[in-house]
Amino acid sequence: MPKTPSVTRRTQVERSAATVTRLLESTVDAIVELGYDGATTREICERAGVSQGGLFRHFPTRLGLVAAAVEYVYEEQLERLRMLLDNTPADTGREGALAQMRVVRDVIRMPRYMVFLEVMLAGRTEPELVAALHPLIARQNEDLCAAARKNPVFARLSDESQQVMKDIAQTRWHSRSSGAQHFPNLTSTRSSSRR
Predict the structure, then answer these.
(1) Is 106 a domain residue?
(2) Residue 28 lies in a domain
(3) Which of 4, 12, 128, 158 is 20 to 30 A from 188 via CA?
(4) From residue 121, how far is each of 9, 22, 31, 63, 97 by CA, in Å?
């Protein structure tokens, strides 16, 4: 009698992890495509193929889901940034430093990074959202400084100069992140609502 191939069943932990990943990916996709307000739990559940009850078993609130999705993207982008910086020549000259800065710029310009920007923008009117993301934002500052220290030009600066450079970069990033080039849908929505 021929043997039937055995089917390996996934454990509950594996199924749960797969569901969480689908929910996070669906949340990221919904925010990128529809914006923060358009990423409703119903929309996210439809994309993930999960019931709303299933969503709330893993994430008690939409806020918790969104915060987890932002952290998910952040971890993904930080790993990509570290990998790219590790593979960029540690040339102490101007060209090596510029190459590393281009790597950082390219990571920040990736479409998935818009989730972070979109949610931060929504946080202007939702203090609970900002509070939920505060630990991640604080960690981001430290992680980005650690990554920047791999840049030989940045690493040679004093701690005070590094802090000044970080403050300038954050100020520039925050001022640019609310611009039309990063939120074309937001700009077109605002323009059409004024008519």
Answers:
(1) yes
(2) no
(3) 128
(4) 43, 24, 12, 14, 30
